[in-house]
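ESCALATION

Customer reports they have been waiting on this structure for their group meeting. Please prioritize. Original submission:
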Amino acid sequence: MSDHGPFGVFFLPNAGGRSEQPPVMVDDQGRSIRQRRYHAKSKAGCVTCKQRRIKCDEARPTCGRCSSRNVQCRFEAVPDRQHQHLAARRVRQGQACTPTRDADVDCVVRRKSNPMSQNPGLGDVDMTALRLMHHFEHSTSATLLLGNGIWRDQVLPLALQHEQLMSAVLMISATHLHHLQPAVATNVRAAAHYLDRTLSSFRGSLEAPLREQDPDVMISCAFILLHYTWATPFFSLDEAAPNPASDKLIPFASGLKSVIQRANDMESPSLTIFKPLLRPEMIRRFKDWAATVEYSYDFQEEFMLRSKAPVLSREEECWEGCGSVHAADRLVPIFQAVDAISRREEDVEWLMPDIQAYSLMWPAKSNKKFEDEVAVNQPDALVVMLAFYACMTWLLADDVWWAERRSKVMLKTILAYLEKEAESEWKQCARRICKYFGFRPDGTVEGAGGGSRYKAVANSTVS
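Update from on-call: job pushed to the front of the queue and completed.
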């Protein structure tokens, strides 16, 4: 098994440049297996695409690849029978419902014939894939960051044109179903299968010139993989006492953020879905609100998250623990949301989408120093991560499925490690975090019901 755990199959370098691990296939138990890389051949593609050894969409008289590159598109002469077959297929496609980014894709899900036939690269769909696509449309899409307006109405129709994105859509749908139906083994196998296909094709896209990629496809896949990374802790299923350092959420998320930023910076007319959204305004409302709130509990002081070291300039060498200080400062808006809710003085339901967005991207925005501190289980860095996961469990665990398992698993894992390995002052700090958030020393929730405390407190706030 790799050092990154059973699901650490794909690592991206961030701006600092990190080594990459080759992707591997995993079975339903998370073990690596050997499998030939899937590649759908384009039998009736144009000569230009065949010479370049890339997938052709077979559109005539000019395919999409040649049209986007503004080069001559030439098709080989085909026998009359094949001509008739292609013509008949185009007629059927014209008669069938063909979803666009603004169209409803219900008709695709309900078709009794092959629902992906308009894209030769997707091949024959089986009932599992059809079930997963239906679940994504009607359930999973609403649970992801940015909601139905992006994932169901725009990304799903785009996935019908891109095999890589369709694999990612089916993968996150299977992962969501596994969360809802943990006893159903087919969901685990489907998630592992489509994860392998997503990672293989995504890595291939990263190795190709960026100008040849569809930035909306790249960003969609990166966001879906980020949700998957959140939903799946990087631990072996048979690991009795996992080491917090073996979880690679921060470097993985940082690499995906780098891909999102590079794709978003492209000057491309096809970048239409995410360009208006990936701006500072996406989280500014939450940060502006946090700046106006005075909280009654000094989290940074009580949790030993405030550095006693002198503040150094950017040009000076960073002191030990400075990564934790930077990460703790970025936790302040989340602390303020927790404090405002716990005091029952303000309804923040309108802010929850912003809090979700801020929380999802919080690990991705960690600096390299903090990443290194977490990687060696530095106590102050682990306390920051403990406070972060405590906030996530308290705020989001019941309502955001992709945050639930990781938040609870990492909360227990970090607590156990600090209790066993850390010095007394850090143990006391961890216990204060548990006391404030209402967790037992083992990380379980005090009182009946379990899950997050946000719902009960928020309901009492507005009642």
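Sent to customer with the following note: The mean pLDDT is 74.
Escalation resolved.
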